[in-house]
Amino acid sequence: MNMTTESSYRLEGTMLEICSCAVSCPCFIGEDPDGDECFGVIAFHLEKGEARGVDVSGLTLVNVAHIPGNALAGGWRSVLLVDSNARDDQYEALLDAFGGKLGGPLADLASLVGEVVAVERVPIFHEARQAEGRLEAEGMLEAAFSPIQSSPDGTTATLHDSAFTTVKGAPAYLGKSRRYRVTLPQHGMDWSFDGHNTIQTAWMMEHQP
After folding, report:
1. What average pLDDT does the chain have?
2. Are 40 and 190 in contact (CB under 8 A)?
3. More confident position, 164 or 77
């Protein structure tokens, strides 16, 4: 990559969503969440990428959010969990990008957040492929999930061209949580939902003003 401006970024990887909605998540297709509110996490695992010229490949950022209505209507109350493997320059670059300071499509995403309650640096374990695997943030988040199989041959059920699709033609793999816990009582976030929605899809955001 050759990125020269202080507001440029190109980030590629996967987006993993786990939440309190029943399978499969209505928010992903732009509908209201079950029970008119959502208790979720969205994990962005960056397989490769740069922001402000800083290489952030291999890092993970998780948005733990209470969404009070339709996800696209905004008003999210969020805690951001940033991979403790990030150096200080990587940490700042990620927060600038995902916080909307660099503009572009990530600024549109950041505009859905009404309040960032806190930012925590924490060891994050991310091992997920096609809605199967584990996501953990030490002492704060624990999740394990399995794909939903749509046919006897074991094919994972998918969505295409959904409201949160960022890679044209990439499927969103549908799954179900075996275990899902958020433990952030200091920030008013403490919940547990098993057997609920999981979705994973390829994800890419780019901005080069």
Report:
1. 93
2. no
3. 77
Give CA–CA dist 189/185, Å, rounded: 5
Rounded-to-integer distance, Cα 1 and Cα 57, Å: 12
Alpha-carbon Rg for the chain, nearest whole angstrom, is 16
How is 8-59 classified by DSSP, letter by letter?
-EEEEEEEEEE-SSPSSPGGGGTPPPGGG-EEEEEEEEEEEEEETTEE-TT-
In this structure, of 17-31, 60-74, 105-119, 177-191, the range with the lowest mean pLDDT score is 17-31
Is the dihedral angle over the CA atoms 16, 166, 111, 37 positive or is it negative?
Answer: negative
Which pLDDT score, from 0 to 100, does residue 29 have? 82
Does residue 208 belong to any structural domain of this protein? no
The answer to whether residue 172 sits within a structural domain is yes
Distance CA 133, CA 137 (A): 14
In a domain, 28, yes or no: yes
| Total domains, the chain | 1
Tell me the percentage of the chain whose pLDDT exceeds 70.
98
Q: Which domain holds residue 84?
A: 9-203
Strand partners, 50: 10, 55
Q: For the whole model, what pTM was predicted?
A: 0.93
53 to each of 6, 24, 82, how far by Cα in Å?
7, 37, 19
pLDDT at residue 53 above 60?
yes
- Using the 8-state DSSP alphabet, how is residue 149 labeled? B
Q: For residue 1, what pLDDT is reported?
A: 39
Q: Has residue 56 been placed in a domain?
A: yes
Quick count: other Cβ atoms within 10 Å of Cβ 21? Answer: 25
